[in-house]
Amino acid sequence: MKKWIKSIIEVNNEENMEENKECTRCGINHPIETYHYANKSNGIRKSVCKDCSYQYAKEHIAQDPIAHYYYMKRYVRENPDKYPGNHIAKSIPRKVGVYKITCVLTDDSYIGCSSNIRDRIYKHKKAYGRAKQKNLYKLIKEYSWEAFDVEVLELCDKKILFERETHYIQEHKPNLNNNKTK
Ligand SMILES: [Zn+2]
Which of the residues 3, 60, 118, 136 has the least number of beta carbons within 10 Å of its own beta carbon? Predict the structure, then answer.
């Protein structure tokens, strides 16, 4: 058997053997995929499960929210690949359409429309605008723009823009569009 084929089989076997792993925090034997990677390139996972990591982070933030804020700012700057907000704007067209903004940490979302989606997203990123978006801006200020993901729902003709926006708001029921759904 060729050497490289053998090594692929060996790697697969190793993965199959290690299907569960005990979390060092809660002690529960979780499936391997419930652990974050410590190092994705060599496939090494953390010793604490995702739920425990999340819980730990929440407790940590509660202890010193200001220190956490500055830590996150630095972390986001140094790890742009992990935070979609840092590099979304270039993929968004300068066209007429409806878009959806979702906070990846809280799952809160907002649907809006604009005759130039990309310019509008830049405005959201800087967190200024009319009172109708105040829920969104409060959240952007709290979590920073890096925690938000933008999705273009539809590009359409300017004449039917508001009609299409209403359609998507009714369909997705985004919780940050309060004064539009009430
Ligand atoms: Zn755990």
Answer: 3
